Amino acid sequence: MKIPILFYLLTTLLFNSCELDKLFKKSNQEKEQLEIEFQKEGALNLINNGILIKNIDIEVASDDYERENGLMHRSKMDENKGMLFLFNEPKIQTFWMKNTRIPLDIIYISESKEVINIAKNTQPFKESGVPSSIEPAKYVLEVNAGSCDKWGVKENVTKINFELNKTTNN
């Protein structure tokens, strides 16, 4: 009598374990397929020697959570878009490409809004080896890889100005 009950309990436990495993696998697959859409939160101008070279729409990362996630979980970004990271104070900035599916140009910008240096053509999913800012940066702009060369963005020449939507926290 005890053996059938024990068999029943073991079978039930095994079945439930398999169902839980399927549930967890599905949940992990859903996380891997997560896709975040671009949200326009402002506009940014890139300027060389007082001449506008490019105007782009920007999404803003202004708090720790937004800055940590950046452009992760996105399969594409339109050509005239980017993400602007706002920091409370200038410091050496270091970025990674964890869970970032698209190659990027990472533009480090001083408190005076001048391009300090650019990490060009960063590789998707890379967690190390992305060049940091060479001087303290208060802003960082991420755009599609190759955009800096295409638009003429240059270190120690290009400046930015931007306007945020009124609903964007700063």
Write the layout of secondary structure elements.
Blueprint: H1 2-32, E1 42-48, E2 51-61, H2 64-69, E3 81-91, E4 104-109, E5 115-122, E6 137-144, H3 147-151, E7 158-164
Parallel strand pairs: 2-3
Antiparallel strand pairs: 1-2, 1-7, 3-6, 4-5, 4-6
Strand order across the largest sheet: 5-4-6-3-2-1-7
Q: What series of H and E elements makes up the topology?
A: HEEHEEEEHE
Question: What is the arithmetic mean of pLDDT?
Answer: 87
The rounded Rg comes to 23 Å
Describe this structure in words.
The protein has 170 residues and is of the alpha+beta class. Helices cover 25% and strands 34% of the residues. The protein has helices at residues 2-32, 64-69, 147-151; strands spanning 42-48, 51-61, 81-91, 104-109, 115-122, 137-144, 158-164. It has a seven-stranded mixed sheet with strand order 5-4-6-3-2-1-7. Strand 4 and strand 5 form a beta hairpin. The termini are far apart.
Highlighted features:
alpha+beta
Question: How would you concisely characterize the structure shown here?
Answer:
The chain has helices at residues 2-32, 64-69, 147-151; strands spanning 42-48, 51-61, 81-91, 104-109, 115-122, 137-144, 158-164. It is built from three helices and seven strands. It has 170 residues and is α+β, with helices and mostly antiparallel strands.
